[in-house]
Amino acid sequence: MKAMVYSQYGPPEMLSLQEVPTPSPKDDEVLVKVQAASVNSWDWDLLQGTYINRLIFGGFSKPKLRILGADIAGQVEAVGQHVTQWKPGDAVFGDLCQGSWGGFAEYVCARENALARKPIDMTYAQAASFPQAGVMALQSVRDKGKVQAGQQVLINGGGVGTFAIQMAKAYGAEVTGVDRAEKFDMMRSIGADHVIDYTREDFTAVPNSRNKQGYDLIIDVVANRTIFDYQRALSPQGIFVMVGGTMGSLAQAGFIGPLISMTGRKKLGILAHEPNKDLAALIALFAAGKVIPVIDKPYPLEETAEALRHLGEGYSQGKVVITMGEDR
To answer: For residues 215 and 106, what is the distance between their CA atoms, to the nearest angstrom?
Structure first.
């Protein structure tokens, strides 16, 4: 089979299209013929070899995961002998981050419980866009943020942000989206009431012309402010959820955030992502027309390096998707 493989950390040029053996499913796995796979910031971090990912996955000198790609959608090709939920021909999607990844390839093995059935009216590209970013957004908005109608919500950047904006609107919040100015039209089209260009304005500077009392919820996907900036920007009982960010920001949120939370009414912390937990809820939101994946651009498998570069440079408007077959 064809796959995008890398053996050294570095820029997207480290990826090359190679012929590799098709994997065989273990007893509790299925072999999936990949129709689409989405690119996440986690793929970019693994490619770059950030310290935290070398620590999590091993491979301090060179990567252990040679094929990136966690979010996939496709058709079941074969099943392990203990698999009862799936059969060949089933259309499925899911997040393989708790397994061996490998989605940027024509075939990949996945654990039986890492997959959900793809709805007929959801394209493979849409299905591949949902698992990681969609689950993180839902867990941030609904579970950690406990969003209610009328609240002020600020969402900063990323593919997670395109889902979180729609979800916060579905719960009745007034939403402010933060990103580059060229993404304003896209953010407004999915429900943002206000938009901020982070290159021109400090979105943690509250009060301002849009918000006098602070935000009831801040979700930051690319956090690069101090924990005290977020604390200042929250309403008296506001919640800050860090989904991703720099090592310094993550360390502050992990250590100082709980201390602030214990000594006051504001709550600040990091999202503890639970992969694939809420795929059924995402399917329901999609079926109701409340959350539709925003797809920036599809790329063929051989252009995966360019897709990663597009994402890594911060210009993608929505999810970047690798397509390898028909989209239904």
So the answer is: 44
